[in-house]
Here is the input.
Amino acid sequence: MDIEDLRIFVEVADAGGVTSGARRLGVSKSIVSRALARLEADLGVQLLARNTRGAALTEAGTTFRDHAAKVCAEIDVAKETILPAGDLRGRLRIAAPLTFGPTHLAPILAEMGRRHPDLHIHTSYSDRFVDLVAEGYDCGIRVGHLRDSNLIAKCVGPIYGKLVASPEYIKVRGAPETPDELLDHEALMQGTEIWQLMDGEAIVKLHPRGRFKADNGTALLAAAIAGLGIAYLPERIIRDHLVSGALVPVMTRHPVRPAGVYVIRPPGQHPARKVRVLTEMLIECFGDAP
Here is the structure.
């Protein structure tokens, strides 16, 4: 029984089909189908029930999937143990935010690839909520205040944000000075998020409202510059616009509560060494953020 066939089966099981599993693995459907056929022949049971809409695990497949995943994880740990110090191999799948990810995270991932030429790094940039387990990611990088979940999170550094608007917006609508006044303004948001402001040592949680929404911060930045409302954005992506005067800070007496940059991973006893190395590199970059 080939360990790579086991890995392919686990990917297909988690992805919900041969096509999506092949896409995750970056190989052809024919390679995946042959691996599954070999595995089913070795076991003498059918693991997947194929139909026109994809493939579903049989009862035997559901039972075998958990055991196969554990075997693959143990093999990965064993390989890492005998590798020369510093060497990383295999594949690392990362879910990263689209907002400032390509500009601030991509250089770190590129440096990781340069240091470890045998490591395959696959990064998906999106501001949508990614299910790491269901979509087969080794880890994710998230920014903000984390929701409660069973994922394991490591804060690699602080992230600071501001509420900003264009001078034109302030000229027309005025500048809010209290949380209650802020609720009367147009908020530029990704969805129905909560804004957390500081009132001295106390945290004030607000549910802002607005007519313009977008699923990433870069689009909200453009809307703020265009004068459509007030946006809550990371300082790292608004710094130049504050210097140029295209944006001005608002609610300075009630600053936004500092958030964090986190590496999150599915629950497990030990993080893979490649995830630990990525975490350490991110701490080097973000741990001393001003």
Observations:
- Residues 59-82 form the longest helix (24 residues).
- The CA atoms of residues 74 and 80 lie 10 Å apart.
- The two ends are 52 Å apart (CA to CA).
